[in-house]
């Protein structure tokens, strides 16, 4: 019996977000790789288990007319969906807040980044705050009640390298993980805008997705252009970032990955192979990393 489940969509998948209020329900944003301006959908799916096997069911599909670059369900406001649409121009990279009960109503919109917005994430410990990252190399923190950003972060050691993904730690309102185009995983304490807390070369190519575990907040998951999904152990006391699990099931770029908040032993990823893959953690390749006399030792246990 197969230990994972998949569903094939009509367009490439760019973004995925679980609702924290509606059990096992997630939104999937897609785009037409050949025509961003005219092709893009918002799909609502139910992801659950039947007879100990993960299942995926498509519940609804909305033609958005334009490619969905990022879609995030608020973890505090149950009807609030945040999007960054993309038609290939920087002028289109506005963050918009929608009421899911009436998607034609725009609650608020924001525009400061000079290049494409690559990711947006709500801070579940500060209900009005969210972060955005962009090709302009900047990380911006916003308050939904005002139109201007309240904090701007720039990794001065790396310079203006496009920042491609981000996520807030689930038990801290100031720990933010970001990934960049060079495959680096960077941890910020947003109270200190001078330099990051930690940094790790996590992938050989661009990181497209970062997600902190909703249960074990020391774990963070990354998905990359190298087709690999990885899970890392992170410590706030600056002891380091260490790889614990990975899988290489996708045949193309891993664009998005999320923890299932209702089934914490299962993760879901999707990408340019047009598949959603949901897999229990124990079926992933197990990895142990540790320092030995100043050298990083890596041990793999294949399932």
TrEMBL record:
Keywords: Cytoplasm, Peroxisome, Protein transport, Repeat, Transport, WD repeat
WD repeats: 110-152, 200-242
SMART domains attached to this UniProt entry: WD40
Entry-linked InterPro entries: PEX7 (IPR044536), WD40/YVTN_repeat-like_dom_sf (IPR015943), WD40_repeat_CS (IPR019775), WD40_repeat_dom_sf (IPR036322), WD40_rpt (IPR001680)
Keyword DNA-binding among record annotations: no
Subcellular location: Cytoplasm, Cytosol; Peroxisome matrix
Molecular function via GO: peroxisome matrix targeting signal-2 binding
Similarity remark: Belongs to the WD repeat peroxin-7 family.
Name of this protein: Peroxin-7
Lineage: Eukaryota, Discoba, Heterolobosea, Tetramitia, Eutetramitia
